[in-house]
## 1
Amino acid sequence: MLTDLATEVFEEHRPVLHAVAYRMLGRVADAEDVVQEAWVRWSAADRSEVREPRAYLVRVTTRLAIDRLRQVQARRESYVGPWLPEPLATDTAGVAPDTAERAVFTETVTMAMLVVMEALSPLERAVFVLREAFGYPYGEIATVLDRGEAAVRQLAARARRHVEEGRPRFEVNPERQRELTERFLAAAAGEDLKGLLRLLATDARLVGDSGGKAKAPLRIIRSADKVARFLVGVAGRPTPGMEFSILELNGGAALLAHYGGVPDTVIQLDVVDGRVTTVYIVRNPDKLASLAKS
């Protein structure tokens, strides 16, 4: 019965643990590994001494994620081409009833914000995630990280400054984003260069992530004209049997292409004032495996 109770308590908190770990790491597989290790720690702990299981589990998960982040950051230095977070299937409508709270929670899981957070140190990122996404007080974050509250406030200020310097602007209205995503797909599939140019901001960028395991640009493509011409060129060489669907990934509408029933490509857009500012393309098969059932 004790084992069943331990499992029940852990499963109750698993969603928030995964949410913390993913925002820390930007990889679904790494987040799942961290949550599994947290379960091992939880199952072996003297739970009679744990008064607040959620606080205990968040502390363990955050510390494990910091250690894992230090390891993966070293590996990313040798990554082939641009690195993007692994797309995550989300359902932000059920996150919080309050619109403002939902918007903040969603912002911290977007492609653009996760890319910006890559510039933070592991400790800065932990403080930023716990404070901005989950609203933890500084005192509780200090306990999680085993640091003084003054040190945590300094980390928070430094993290916020770095994020503000690179903070992306994007359309938070899900209906507008989905509509523009559908128009974007239609223009690209129809090899409509003028239509794409009307949708793209003048300084639009295209960022592709293949990890060297699929075809994708190894450098960021910049300017509306170059991005549009690249997309039209790709559309002019269609893959027979490719199927497209639109779903919610990382808090916003995204295109998912399946080939032979296997996820092949994810395309997601940053939208500002009705124009596409960034096109994210993820083709690394390792980062698409979690979407196999989508």
## 2
Amino acid sequence: MTETVVSTAKSPPGPAVSVPVSTRPRGDEGQPRPRAAGGRLRALDGLRLLAALMVAFYHYGGRGGEVSRAWGSSPQDQFPTLHAWFAYGPLGVQIFFVISGFVICMSGWGRPLRSFFASRAARLMPAYWVAVVLVTAVFALPAVAYAAVTPSEALLNLTLLQEPLGAHRVLGVDWTLWVEIRFYALFALCIVLPGATRRRVILFCAVWTLAAAVAHAADEPFLSLVLMPQYAPFFIGGMGIYLLYRDRRDALAWGIVAVSWLTGQHHAVAGLWHPSGPGQFSYRSAAVIVAVVTLGFLAVLAIALGLLDRADWRWLTVAGALTYPFYLVHEHLGWVVIGVLHQEFGLPSWLTLALTVGAMLGLAWLMNRYVENRMTPWLRGVLSRTR
């Protein structure tokens, strides 16, 4: 979840996406495609923030664990009805991945490898570094005293390699960044390095779909690590949707999106559904899981086909800019805010939830303005000049 849709994913946030000349809808031979381009995809920014809020509501009220300590009791007690709906929040991650597939395909089209690498690193790292330092510092405060990582692990977290190296994570959400990085690597090697074309993207999508299914069947750790069978359909679906953005009459792209949706909903149900039981925090309906995944695909598809072009409000640009830093800091720092507002100040659950979301959005705004807006262009420039 990391593409700035308007500068991701992700997937990660910034100004609305103005389509560069090199990525405007054209055929592989340079002939214009039917879909006009050059506008802003502000609706995609709004969708990204919506996906981030889904994840936040899950972390605040749709699960047990550490957040129960922040509330003083289980979120089931705090939100007797809403907790069951908040439990569907993890599906916001799958929506992020669809958006990331779309945006990475757009931003990587016609871009040299060095520029692609510089763009991705500059987009991800500045806000991530600040989030790691901030959460580490806050969790180490005596008044907070949540479980803190060791100094060595905190330093390792700055590399974003803590997942494969088996260290404790500072940010609970950073596992999704490790998924994104693996997608970036596959896309860079198979598409950016040889040069993006429609045929190459279609072949990449087809081979990855089949290889991911084989990896799932083989249950071989290395293949699963590289090919990510449970998440591949969402990235592939996003790439297929980008091909439809270039040409809505592309039958093969429609096929890629359809197969990705079919396999993606299966993986989502397999990952989130479980039988109901007294020991379970909440019960998720398979039908609702499929519906949320479907709506995510349809929303990105509607944006790509121009059906939401009228959603061109400027505030959506701000929403997109806040999404990535909000996503990074909302979980762990949100626990601290919930504990202060609900247990120390005695505010009701609904007001605590609203104020916590607002506080995290405010922090995200500060990070975007004073960290991302200053460090991202600088880091991109440094990396672009490096030889």
## 3
Amino acid sequence: MSFLSRRRGGGRRGRGDTETETENASTPTPSPAAIALPDIELSTDKPPLLTVSPAEPAAHWAAVHRGALRAAIAEHGSLLVRGLGLRDAAETGAVFHELADTLTAEREAFAPRRSYVDGVHSSTTWPSNQPMCMHHESSYALEFPGLLLFACLQAAERGGATGIADAEAVHASLPREVTERFEREGWLLTRSYNDEIGASVAEAFGTADRTVVEAYCRAHSIEFAWHPDGSLHTRQRRAAVLRHPVTGRRCWFNQIAFLSEWTMDPEVREYLVDLYGPAGLPFNTRYGGGDPIGADVIETLNEVYERHTVRTPWRAGDLLLVDNIRCAHSREPFEGPREVLVGLADPVRLPQSPANGSTRRTR
């Protein structure tokens, strides 16, 4: 049963809206009665917190409380579990497998990850002195994880918290003049793959075989072009707003701000433009029709995200569970070693539709 397999209610859509619903939503078979959890601590400025002190191994505890934990995520959107004492990739992987229906490999990565045991990855490689702004994991893909699992094995000396923002609240708080155009057109992600910066073709697609890469692009509504220098350039249009498959409410679901040139450090952007040209940036975002997005729009998006961000500093051994549609997440800059493992779970697939692009091959 998929983590996001139920659909309740949901308002009616007006004609012309390009928000998207997920495929294959169905009513699951009721699960056995869940063993109750201790009280969850709720706060306006921190993610929901569950403090535990299990006597049994962490994976056994997770298996026993799986139903209650997943119910808590469905209710709150995220849950930080403190006290499991996760210590290594093997133990973390055992917990992830107990809580997830399916753990998946990443495709279309925008930065490299290290793979550990089956279904367990490192956090995205990203400069420690640069923030990772709010985003929904793989929201530019036709198939993305419905559930994210994070495990902290080593907390940074300073900073490095993972922030959470409610995507329903973000959508409701954005100026209508900002959301209307994105709801009408969707958003466009442009990418340039080379072996010098960002994820390479092999890292993003799991292979450097052009035939396989092209087949993947066609199957996932991605326009592609190989340039004479061997680099690959792609474009993919996606809906900016999804209706949550359980609540039916609109969620601001995309990476418009995070993957924008205007979110880059200005010196980094200037260097990359000088090196590769404006069209050669490793990634950038546009309106769905192809027009540039102004820096003022990206600033507005990031300001609204920040107003709705809650965060708690990591402690070694913590487990964080996140509904990837309902909640965006971020990462603060940090100092000192930091190790957070990630599980990408319970994939959700979007239907191929005008809102989610068209497949075209270019040369």
## 4
Amino acid sequence: MQVTVVVPTFNEGPNVEELVGRLAVAVEGIDAEVIFVDDSTDDTPAVVDRVAEASTLPVRLLRRDEPVGGLSGAVVEGLGQARGEWVVVMDGDLQHPPEMVPVLLETAASTGADLVVASRYTGNGDAGGLDGRWRHLVSSASSLLARSMFPVRLRNVTDPMTGFFAVRTAAIDVAALRPRGFKILLEILARNKVEVVEEPFVFGERFAGESKATFANGLRYLQQLTALRFGRMSTFALVGAFGAVLNLAIMWGLEQFGVHYMPAAVVSAAVTIVTNFLLLEHFVFHDLRDEGRNVWKRAAQSFTFNGIEAAVRLPFLHWLVVLTGMPPVLAQALTLVVAFLLRFVFHAQVVYRPRKSEPAPVVPLTGEKAAPAADED
């Protein structure tokens, strides 16, 4: 069998018939099947059974009594049951257009990639189907954070948050996946060495029902990122913590000599900006120093950003001290905490951003699975 379409569902009954109908037309002439992996609390399983009886496209239902791992867990179970050489993962709400399935497969065939990501943020792609500006902002920020934490694995991926992609089953180790939450693509990319290309697509409106995105899902996403990529960010945090302690110590020492807290903050910021850059070069991003930028350009970018960031923090520091009566050192500590994530994202995405790699040439399928290696980024 050429392709299995895996659709994780949770209370998506009203969308099933339309989805299967459009898929059947889209994959006509392709040896294909659909697996619905269902965690629903409504009549969705009955709807799938009814649609399957009338469909010309083979439809299977995998009903889960325990939704272990959430949507990601459902996808992993679908991958384990797939008969196809390729698996296309897509949502059941029709925001992922079924007509894109053959496009993803054609891109895979023409490039020799192991995984084709349907991206909202490359080429003519569009995320217009997201509900409101807040969802757009959350999606963009989440993608940026993921790419910052995995700069090498995601160097060719603009949309690691998408749930729409095609993957060659022989290229991944399903048993190595540790599903949680709803961002299975990130899990696959972090734990498998695969050749990745992207195909732009327009994220559509929901056909029926409501979005399943919740604040709890967002927390699980952060948990997933932390579990997958604790290495580089933890080292960055240690450097940042050292810089913060140094910053506060210098500021406190200067205040003891009668220096006003504002110039003391300027001096402490200047010293720690230089110190932090040297530590980042040697302990955090040492493997990304040969990505096309010389040390002077990296230093200029780092110093410029940190200088602007420090300049923005100083008025905020003054506001905290004057309007709230907070002790200057405590106020400075709070501003440093707020700035940490911004500094990490900038350095990962700008100063040490890896160059994009070229797709590998087409090679015969070997059937060998890639070993999990989430810690090489």
